[in-house]
Amino acid sequence: MARYLDKNTWKSFLDVGCGDGSLLYALNKKGYFNDKNVYAIDLSKNRIDLCKKINQNFRCFVNSAGDMKAINDDSINFLVSTQVIEHVQSDDELIKELARVLEKNNNIVYLSTVFKKWYGWYFYRCNKKWTLDPTHLREYTKDNQLLDIFKKYDFEIIECKKSLLWFTISYFFMRRMHYKSNRINNPFLKFISLFKVPIIGYYNWEIICSKNLKC
Q1: pTM for the whole thing?
Q2: Would you call 200 helix, strand, or coil by DSSP?
Q3: Residue 20 resides in a domain
Q4: Domains in the chain: how many in total?
Q5: φ and ψ at 26, to 5 degrees?
């Protein structure tokens, strides 16, 4: 993502499904948003309120990722959506909305999601299947399940990368023993938080693409 942000040919930025604004906070702190128009949407009003505190110039809206009514057509140069598309009812509708809000001939999309290989396993169950998160409505198992939707809306795939996901051992214990996050002060959990293990068969899938790219 940083390589494309550094090109500095963009003027407007949108975080789709921004959560509590951790990405916005990091990019704002590094100065990426100086003299830029920054937008953020999320379904949670509490999270949107947190994002507004990061920078008073951010334009933040309670909105659905699949129906971004607050964002105008052809208004966004740089769009980011991290670990969101696996949660929405329709991935097709989300990508259709991305195509609508992007400024023609000058746009970049960075999207990340979960990719699961056939042997993937994690300790959650959803719809009688092992899953990374019980709130996931889908976990992609083949490239064309997602890339074909991008192509349907005339996106050109620029980069596509998968990286093995890892988790801290402390996270496993905290979730299984129903600890709250502030219990990380527990000396044992603090110690084992230093150790990470791979999540077998689960990958962070990063996609860089553009609609109507000018060569």
Answers
A1: 0.87
A2: strand
A3: yes
A4: 1
A5: -65, -45
